[in-house]
Amino acid sequence: MSVAFRRESDEEHLEPKFELPIPAGPNLVTARGLRLIEARIAELEADAAKADDPAAVTSLQRDLRYWRARQVSAELAPVPAGEKVEFGTEVRFSLNDNPRTLRIVGDDEAAPAAGLISFNAPLSRAMLGAEAGDLLPFGGIEDAIEILSVAVAAD
Asked: Is 2 helix (H, G, I), strand (E, B) or coil?
């Protein structure tokens, strides 16, 4: 019989299941970020306890491994002074004359549509260490960012 017509099992044709990738570098979190991780773990544990579908249980267990690893590696960042752009600050800035406000948070807490960006994001990295009034290059444009104000973000 030709190898082309032989089939070992249905499993060999399924997409491989990989672990969720852990972002490189330190796992800095805000107090809010730490609470979100704890809530996510509790939610996944509850879902796993009542799930009957083996594929769903496998998926939930994979997600639990990710969030438990993030909980164990979480480093609560110190509260910023609010004088310069740093982790945990809320920054009002103008990007190419378009005013915006963003809060700099950890990787897992980031939600750009909600105004929360990771400290690892290129925009955050461009602003870290800057103070109100500073003009910064971004995207190959000199003075693309103007820092308007910096404040300690409320948790």
From this structure: coil
Tell me the mean pLDDT in the region 25-52.
Answer: 93
Which of 15, 41, 76 corresponds to the end of one domain? Answer: 76
DSSP conformational letter for 15:
P
Give the gyration radius of the chain's Cα atoms.
Answer: 21
Neighbours of 52 (CB within 10 A): 6
What's the number of domains the chain is made of?
2
| pLDDT per position as a tens digit, 58-94 | 999 999 999 999 999 999 999 999 899 999 999 999 9
pTM, to two decimals: 0.80
| CA distances in angstroms from 129 to 26, 34, 74, 136, listed in the order given | 18, 24, 23, 11
Q: Cα separation of 90 and 76, whole Å?
A: 17
**30 found inside a domain:** yes
Question: What is the domain range of residue 67?
Answer: 24-76
Q: Are residues 100 and 131 in the same domain?
A: yes
